[in-house]
Amino acid sequence: MRPGGTGFGCTGTWCRWEWRNRVVDSSSIEVNRRARRAKTDQLDAMKLVVLLVRYESGEKKVWSVVRVPNVSEEDGRQLGRELESLKKERTSHCNRIRGLLASQGVDVGAGRVGIRRGLEAVRLWDGSALPADLRARLERERERLELLEAQIQTLEKQRRERVAEPVGRALEQVRQLLQLRAIGMNSAWLFVMEFFGWRQFRNRRQVGGLSGLSPTPYSSGDKLQHEQGIDKAGNVRVRTMAIEIAWGWLRWQPQSELSRWYRERFGKGNSRSRRVGIVALARKLLVALWRYLETGLIPAGAELKAS
Length: 307
Hints:
It contains 11 helices and 4 strands. The protein is mainly alpha-helical. The protein has a two-stranded antiparallel ribbon with strand order 1-2. The chain has a two-stranded antiparallel sheet with strand order 3-4.
């Protein structure tokens, strides 16, 4: 949704209009909570104009203005997203081949290596050869799988080459994240290209909110107080990767302040409390990585890689 604002300026005898666009998150626009209310395009337009006036007058929390990436920033996300898509396709092909063989009583083992080894000399449970049509289908599946492998290797090589000779602030941030233990190429690339590279965070609350890891408390008096969990309203890719990296952070950065905080707070709890705690750790870790990229301040107690 793009409600626009205008400005008028004059220089000498010439006057011109200056147009400014505000891209707004539609879910952040306040609405009347009555069960039945009037709803027309004219009423919606009037409501947007009123909210725009309030926003331009200094009431910044009246709605959420979206930061739109430019052409180069949007293009920087394509390589990582294509890699993600190709890897999902690779998993689908592997599962399909394994399922077709399992239906005939053939177990090729776990992993893609087992699939390739199983197709070389596959026999049914009684030692007979595979039917002709099934073998032809498996061969075509393997050809598509090999094509995906080649494309994935090509994209990963391009990514390594760009990071080796960085051009631009985003690639420099990728190299900076790679200096920390527990941070690999996939996570560093995703965090920068999807999150830190072009966003303009002002505080830690914005980092937690955009990642969808912010708590949502419910409090109405002394008796009605409970936690509703995280809002999950942010970037799904970043939230998933942050939780995965939080588990890795406990393993590869055991002496860091964040790891010690987690062990003291949730280490002695049951499995549910540890899962709840890892979400809190993921939010704290994202904030620490944001400060590390902005100020160069290494997370307390964290270790850098040897190379």
